[in-house]
Amino acid sequence: MNRRVVITGMGVAAPNGVGLDNFENAIKQNKSGIRFFPELEKLKFSCQIGGKPEITETLLQQYFTPLQLRGLNSSGIVYGVISGTDAWKDAGLTITNDNSPDWGSGIIFGTGILGVDKFREAIHLIDEGNTRRLGSTSVVQTMASGISAYLGGILGCGNQVTTNSSACTTGTEALLMGYDRIKSGKTKRMLVGSCGDHGPYIWGGFDAMRILPNKYNNDPEKASRPMSESAAGFVPGSGAGALVLEDLDSAIERGARIYAEVLGGEINSGGQRGEGSMTAANNEAVERCIKMALKNSNIRPDEIDAVNGHLTATSRDSVEILNWTKALKRNGADFPYINSLKGMTGHCLSASGSMECVSSVLQIYGDYIFGNMNCEDIHPEISALIDPDKIPRKKIDKKINILAKASFGFGDVNAVVLFKKY
């Protein structure tokens, strides 16, 4: 139970950068990955923009065999395999074709909805009486655990290989689940992360809820505005993030680079009671999640240097900030620096937690805090709670010792993890 858990590899497929170097350059420069999609205009969406990683055919061929590519029609699996494989290699681990699995390595890789386009393709073929044309990969592309199954086979992992799903909390929850497995001594290494499909069949429900911005179709890079007074809803996105968690002794033994240490965290739910509902967080549960994450990590509130929030560019942003001030008992100029990745990527739903964990660890390792894009007009309710200087608009150089990362999801579920400089 005294095992320390560190991060030795990372990978990402984000709307503003595919590959760790491309992604880090993007977040340092406030580069947006949000674009206009003519398909959404044709389908009469109110919000005709979104965040989608750009994957070329040449890049695909570096991660999938011709056989695997035949009939592959799940963007989430594509993003997950790219980020997961990159994280594995970034950790200095090899991919072998040994007959024996790697019993000391496992995978927890989550998703929200997987293979929607494959489902649509399958439904048409079945309705037309062409079931035999479905192909042999339709099941693995549409089952929820398709992403962990793909990665498990590619990497040859013999420990726990599974998929979790908790809406927008999925990626951060996967990381904490992997952390717990290493901490308890059940394995020495876990690949954790999450992915999410793109497109109208994923984003349509949110458009119908009228919680997406509809005034930025001609200016997509300005649309996602976390903590801004002019925020008009979250921009839907997609992608994947992945991290290799490892027992510290194992990492040291093989001379691995260590990005940061995972101190611990907390996962809870507001039970959809009180202020909580299917779509809104119970504030008491959020505060409790933050406080318990600190307690579980043996960290005082005044030790937190930075927060990477959930902060989706909705009316809930100011409520989230209020919850942080109450949980940490810090406000004004005493509040930690805080930022949101979503100004650059949009809200990548089930992929958001893992992508944002990657961005959080990059900041710790690189001694900087990336800027909050489209936050020129900080919401007055937020500026009344914390010093606006704690919301940097551009990248600043800053040594971060401890960073808190939070994710909150539909179903009134919460996850907070604490990372520390190694």
Automatic annotation (TrEMBL):
Secreted in keyword set: no
Gene Ontology annotations for the cellular component aspect, listed alphabetically: cytosol
SMART domains: PKS_KS (SM00825)
Subcellular location: Cytoplasm
Assigned EC number: 2.3.1.41
Family: Belongs to the thiolase-like superfamily. Beta-ketoacyl-ACP synthases family.
Protein's recorded name: 3-oxoacyl-[acyl-carrier-protein] synthase 1
Organism: Christiangramia forsetii (strain DSM 17595 / CGMCC 1.15422 / KT0803) (Gramella forsetii)
